[in-house]
Amino acid sequence: MDTLCTVAECNECDFSKLSEKPRSLNMDRERQRSFDERSLSELSIGFSPRVMTRSADNANANANANANFSRLVIDHNPDAPFSPGRRSGFNTPRSLIGYEPHPMVGEAWDALRRSLVYFRGKPVGTIAALDSSEEELNYDQVFVRDFVPSALAFLMNGEPEIVKNFILKTLRLQSWEKKIDRFQLGEGVMPASFKVLHDPIRNTETLIADFGESAIGRVAPVDSGFWWIILLRAYTKSTGDSSLAELPECQKGMRLILSLCLSEGFDTFPTLLCADGCCMIDRRMGVYGYPIEIQALFFMALRCALVLLKQDDEGKEFVERIVKRLHALNYHMRSYFWLDLKQLNDIYRYKTEEYSHTAVNKFNVIPDSLPEWVFDFMPIRGGYFIGNVSPAKMDFRWFALGNCIAILSSLATEEQSNAIMDLIESRWEELVGEMPIKVCYPAIESHDWRIITGCDPKNTRWSYHNGGSWPVLLWLLTAACIKTGRPQIARRAIELAESRLLKDSWPEYYDGKLGRYIGKQARKFQTWSIAGYLVAKMMLEDPSHLGMISLEEDKQLKPLLRRSHSWTF
Ligand code: GLC
Q1: Is ligand 1 within 6 A of the CB of residue 553?
Q2: Which residues 6+ apart lie within 8 Å of 236 measured at CB?
Q3: How many angstroms is it from 282 CA to the middle of ligand 1?
Q4: How distant, in Å, are the alpha carbons of 26, 83, 87, 306, 542 from that of 95?
Q5: What's the CA angle centered on 20, arms 17 and 21, to 5 degrees?
């Protein structure tokens, strides 16, 4: 196996002997393994600083992976043998003998299937929420980001067709001309959401998409394109079918997304400059600048594109640009977004007004801008990627999605990944409380709330995007737990969710410091709360699913990090 042999891939080797995967899938997986092994080291574009000591590196990677795997298996169920699995009446995924699926699993599958949206007879996505008691607004649409956990659930359950349909449909939408008032958006922008319009008189169906021109605040989604690429890799990885990604239109779709985010301009940072509200947090919440959610998704999408892009005339140029950007982004994020006790203490003692390349406090952060809460929040062991870094401004808030994606994409080093999990464990009450897990911590209140949110009545303290608890994030937390070898944390979080979610009719979010109350304006039967739960359950049951959504560290990034350190500073 090559440098990119992942924990999950190693798991698959063992699981495949024991589980009842359809044959063609196993054969496809063989092909898939070689497909996914492409790493930076194989791209001869002058970025290879040393001759790779492959066998030694690989031996280590495999040893680590196997160690992690045995930990997972033991942790999962110490005594029970693995069974070939079976399907329940609800079409739930394969299960272990002696492992009765939670009654909620069947209910969740039913609810997920009810949320399916069809276009000309084919399922193309899932509706955001099936709640008739509240005003629909745009919750009757298929959101790209919301569909991701649904897609993963279907892939894990051996139903890839809907995912393929979704990928192809959204690709068609990408090629639409997009205008907001008289201004035309970039060609590559993927929609935030779309819906199917039925004309009962003519008996026709048409799609309408929203690229931000109808969204509150009129912001285009930066995350949609990244999720689209990540999903294309998940589909390819899970089915072993690389023919979808290889289609000329898929290759072009990826290149268009990449053109938007790799374009050169006035930037001095490799991170991506964004407007407020351009991601999961789609309202003004002070996340403009370089929000961690987007930077982590950007990193992951670049890594996924690297394995999906063909090295033909057009693809090759992009591959080169991706590799360069990945190195710079990796370095920047790990160096400047990372906060632990030591780093916090260093910032606390920062000198200001330094000039020239010898500056330690490069962005001129004023120590007085450190918020009080962060000193109490920071545990002795642990750390996290902060919300935002820009000139003289650091947003110290903790964001769940960005930190989990940093672990899954290996933007975080192994040490950093463990530190993120250490922090979640030691700040369990604050971040998980009674419902997993806070979208961000802490909430902004009073004067700050007025200035930062513009007095947003939906984002009051400890509600919605402002410190609310979002069950959908359970799948990301679970994936991060499995990757770092701590499934017991995920199990604890899932138990909390199981005590409430079904009873409360799958709310979109919970409010309050502990996440005890169903959110003020939360939709019920929110599809991604349902799918997020299913994905979390399925990954815990069969950790090999993690491979769809996780990337191991590319060893080539490490030596370069050290090299660039000595060049630049
Ligand atoms: C809210 C969320 C957004 C989600 C949408 C549909 O606007 O902030 O992230 O995509 O609802 O569920």
Answers
A1: no
A2: 32, 35, 242, 244, 245, 308
A3: 7
A4: 18, 8, 7, 34, 8
A5: 90
Digit-coded pLDDT (tens) for 318-368: 999 999 999 999 999 999 999 999 999 999 999 999 988 999 999 999 999
Helix (H, G, I), strand (E, B) or coil at 227: helix
Q: Quick one: tokens of 62? A: 């495999």
Instruction: Extract the tokens encoding 444.
Output: 């902004």
Ligand 1 pocket, residue 128 CB under 6 Å: yes
Cα dihedral sign for 475, 481, 483, 486? negative
CA distance 264 to 469: 37
Q: What is the largest CA-CA distance in the chain?
A: 71
Q: Point out the ligand 1 atom lying closest to the alpha carbon of residue 283.
A: 8
Q: Quote the CA–CA distance of 530 and 498 in Å, as a whole number.
A: 11
d(CA 162, ligand 1 centre) in Å:
21
Give, using CA atoms, the residue closest to atom 2 of ligand 1. 280
The predicted model scores a pTM of 0.84
Distance CA 59, CA 50 (A): 18
Q: Is 201 helix (H, G, I), strand (E, B) or coil?
A: coil
Q: Which two tokens stand for residue 213?
A: 């021109």
Q: How far does the centroid of ligand 1 lie from the alpha carbon of residue 29, in Å?
A: 34
**Cβ(205)–Cβ(119) under 8 Å?**
yes
